[in-house]
Design brief:
This protein has about 260 residues and is α/β, with parallel strands linked by helices. It has 8 helices and 8 strands.
Length: about 260
């Protein structure tokens, strides 16, 4: 059998974790293959629980490395495990239910400032005409007032959700990745805070858009709601939260860096 031609290394390793969601992963891989294959070094696909293999035999322009967990792990632990397979400049944490209508990866990486450690496009949620508003630091008051008139939307976000997080691999390595004490929620805010406290910039591409196609499970599941609430308590009890809050309150995001 002839040896397949070697690929030129590409700048982005993509980490996707499936919790019985390979039917959602398939259209995502198809879109990445169609629009962004030239930027992807590999996809690390983690099967967190056993499930039927609906991807068997499907060809992609990039390698897909599989990890099959012997026991289910949390969000951060899964992506930290995938990062150990990353040899590229960028590491993309991507939810299975993200969708693309064009190439977002290459233009996003091209916009990165030299001190940008974490990048994201704007995210469009189901049924919405406009992208999600920029997020302020999570506090009990912020949660209660974010939907009310007069809420002060930050000009730049102080954190971004874990749906689409493009990390500079050096920054991810420097902060030690996700804090695995969080199980499913809160680790996105925590790593955003720690990345900025370490001197890296959080950068949003206002001209790029990705779609999120699923409803939040915490709205429908008591178990997910429990995980959500307990994770918030862990956030508010962490040293990173209070250091980041003091730094932002001290003037601006620039004071964090």
């Amino acid at each position: 059998m002839p040896t397949p031609p070697s690929r030129t290394p590409q700048p982005i390793t993509v980490s996707i974790v499936s919790h019985g969601q390979l039917a959602l992963v398939r259209p995502l891989l198809e879109q990445l293959d169609r629009f962004s294959a030239g930027s992807i070094d590999k996809v690390v696909l983690t099967l967190n629980i056993p499930e039927p293999d609906v991807l068997a035999g499907l060809p992609w322009q990039f390698p897909v490395e599989r990890i099959e967990n012997a026991a289910a792990m949390g969000f951060g632990a899964n992506h930290n495990q995938a990062f150990r397979h990353c040899d590229s400049e960028w590491f993309l944490v991507l939810n299975p239910d993200m969708r693309f209508d064009n190439d977002v990866l290459a233009p996003l990486a091209a916009q990165a400032a030299p001190d940008a450690g974490l990048l994201t496009p704007r995210i469009l949620e189901p049924g919405k005409a406009q992208p999600e508003q920029h997020r302020a630091i999570i506090t009990p008051l912020e949660i209660l007032t974010r939907k009310r008139p007069g809420y002060a939307i930050p000009a730049v976000p102080e954190w971004v959700p874990g749906l689409f997080m493009l990390f500079r691999s050096r920054a991810y390595r420097e902060v030690g990745g996700f804090d695995e004490r969080f199980f499913m929620y809160g680790e996105d805010f925590d790593i955003c805070a720690r990345t900025q406290l370490a001197g890296w910039k959080l950068q949003v591409a206002e001209d790029l858009l990705a779609r999120h196609e699923a409803q939040r499970a915490s709205h429908a599941s008591r178990r997910h709601l429990y995980w959500h609430v307990t994770s918030l308590l862990k956030v508010w009890g962490s040293g990173a939260f209070w250091r980041f809050r003091r730094a932002v309150r001290g003037g601006s995001q620039a004071s964090v860096l």
